[in-house]
Amino acid sequence: MASYHFEINSGKKGSVLEHARYITREGKFSDYEDLVDTGYGNLPRWAGGDPIEFWRAAEKYERENGSVYREYEIALPVELDREQQQELARRTVKRVVGPKPYLYAIHEPVGKLGGMNNPHMHLMFSDRLPDGIDRSPQQTFARHNPQHPERGGCKKDSGGKNRMELRDAARAQRRLIAEIQNEMLAEVGASARVDHRSYKERGIAVMPERHLGAARVKHMSEKERHEYVAGRNGRAEAKSGQAGRL
């Protein structure tokens, strides 16, 4: 079974431009050598086709303490070659983001443990829904006016949803992304499939792997790295064996 990873993040004012430059490996992040591809779309006319200009305005005009962007971090199946992974990323954007403004990047760093490639995509998008009304940058991010949409900003897709509804929406996105990946894997003739469910939901008695982070890995001894990788392989074998009995 292929590995599945889907993480939801969000960013507030003060972090937006930095993060956009981080995922596209621009500015002080240009020394990274793992960038595979980038893309953007659904930008308003005033952005002039420049996603950085869009995020600059979003950071300036979005309301205080509100989420300026949402981000999905998604692992791309290693069973696909690079061209297939890029096509998968484009399909994911189209079906997950819809008409909302977005910026994405594909990274393929070599893992600090085990030396294996780790292809994944970062998908930044705004919750603002375009409605065909031509607005200025400031008005785009103003409060939505449902009675007179032309007087307010673009409606937020997450606006008015309670915690339960947001949780259900996140679960639906997890399921959708797995479906998109499995469709692509089947299309190219790969036998592997991903599963968006947790180990517990699948009846697999294996502890999920703890993300260590680059700083912690850097300070691990060779013995500790070897033991961690061996444990990872053992967990994968146990997971595969139990999944086969379901």
Automatic annotation (TrEMBL):
Q: Where is this region: Disordered?
A: 133-162, 217-246
What's the domain of life for this entry?
Bacteria
Q: Which UniProt keywords apply?
A: Conjugation
Domain MobA/MobL protein residues, every copy: 43-220
Pfam families linked: MobA_MobL
Please give the Gene3D superfamilies that the UniProt record associates with this protein.
3.30.930.30
* Keyword hit for Membrane: no
Here the segments flagged for biased composition (Basic and acidic residues) are 147-162, 219-238
The signal peptide, as residue positions, is none
Q: Which family does it belong to?
A: Belongs to the MobA/MobL family.
Query: Any idea what this protein is called?
Result: MobA/MobL family protein
Q: What species is given as this protein's source?
A: Dyella ginsengisoli
